[in-house]
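Design a sequence for this backbone.
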């Protein structure tokens, strides 16, 4: 079987890396196609596998820039796929759906976000996708009929204990002693679906930092430029080490959805602050069913300060460890699930 993975975001690298390794290790042909996006190319180089960058200049964040980016990727992926003739296309992008339809190649799109929250993506992708894979908590609306629901999260494709064991020695190479530390994450919030979405503002960030500093070190990861009073907290580490740092943090606070979910499945208390709170099924589940974190909308930002005070004064490790164990007992290793799914899908489609 020849598989083509189209990766458009660093999160897609993590989502597929273990599946790519599994199929490549079993002798299957694997094509990896990427575009320029944040640290994606830096991460993919760590696999030591050949890859092809079909959008090396990236795209602009305007709506027109995004549209042109989709068109360019679809066309270049079409040419690449026509030449390479993969048996199946995988990703979380519109391009694989369009190319699959044109070349009669099965395309499987993976998504955690409810369709109504990424409606433009859904409208230009799902009608052309062969199948959609989503967590059971995800509602794909009128495309539920072509959705296969699974008992997992994307983050468990790479942060499940079968694949990742955090290493405190990695952290101690950068931080001295046994001090507690906190991670804050500022997203660019410049994707098309982030239009009108706000996250953590500057004054709130400063107040939270002042609350946390007496208890440990504050470390900031940011997609966007930081002001001078925040730049001094920037965490400068290779991107592949971030999950080790997140696993041992006392608290994660940020406006990134993915990193909040990553903190949750690692057993680190998270607080996400953005306007998506309450609107995404898988994060609602991590927050409300498994109690691994908290969501606060910017309009309710006053609620974050007593919550942070409570977490700072509580030894959360044992409680969160038990909550994480419960979640892991009820959710599957997604890399293993996807590998098995693709084996069965290939068998049925060829039979």
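Sequence:
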């Amino acid at each position: 079987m020849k598989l083509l993975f189209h990766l458009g975001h660093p999160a897609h690298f993590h989502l597929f890396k273990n599946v790519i390794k599994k199929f490549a290790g079993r002798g299957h042909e694997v094509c990896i196609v990427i575009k320029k996006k944040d640290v994606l190319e830096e991460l993919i180089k760590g696999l030591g596998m050949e890859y092809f960058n079909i959008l090396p200049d990236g795209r602009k964040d305007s709506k027109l820039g995004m549209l042109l980016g989709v068109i360019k990727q679809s066309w270049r992926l079409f040419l690449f796929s026509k030449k390479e003739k993969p048996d199946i296309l995988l990703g979380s992008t519109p391009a694989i759906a369009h190319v699959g339809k044109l070349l009669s190649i099965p395309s499987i799109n993976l998504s955690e976000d409810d369709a109504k929250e990424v409606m433009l993506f859904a409208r230009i992708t799902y009608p052309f996708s062969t199948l959609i894979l989503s967590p059971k908590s995800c509602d794909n609306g009128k495309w539920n009929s072509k959705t296969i629901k699974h008992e997992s999260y994307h983050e468990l494709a790479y942060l499940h204990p079968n694949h990742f064991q955090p290493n405190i020695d990695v952290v101690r190479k950068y931080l001295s002693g046994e001090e507690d530390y906190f991670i804050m994450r500022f997203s660019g919030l410049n994707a098309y679906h982030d239009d009108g979405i706000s996250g953590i503002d500057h004054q709130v960030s400063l107040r939270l930092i002042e609350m946390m500093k007496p208890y440990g070190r504050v470390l900031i990861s940011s997609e966007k430029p930081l002001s001078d009073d925040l730049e001094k907290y920037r965490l400068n580490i290779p991107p592949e080490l971030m999950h080790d740092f997140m696993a041992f943090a006392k608290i994660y606070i940020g406006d990134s959805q993915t990193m909040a979910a990553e903190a949750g499945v690692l057993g680190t208390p998270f607080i996400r602050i953005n306007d998506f709170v309450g609107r995404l099924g898988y994060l609602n589940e991590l927050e409300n069913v498994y109690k691994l974190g908290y969501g606060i909308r910017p309009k309710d930002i006053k609620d974050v300060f007593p919550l942070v005070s409570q977490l700072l004064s509580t030894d959360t490790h044992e409680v969160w460890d038990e909550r994480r164990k419960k979640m892991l007992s009820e959710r599957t290793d997604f890399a293993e699930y996807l590998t098995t799914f693709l084996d069965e899908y290939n068998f049925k489609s060829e039979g």
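The chain has 14 helices and twelve strands.
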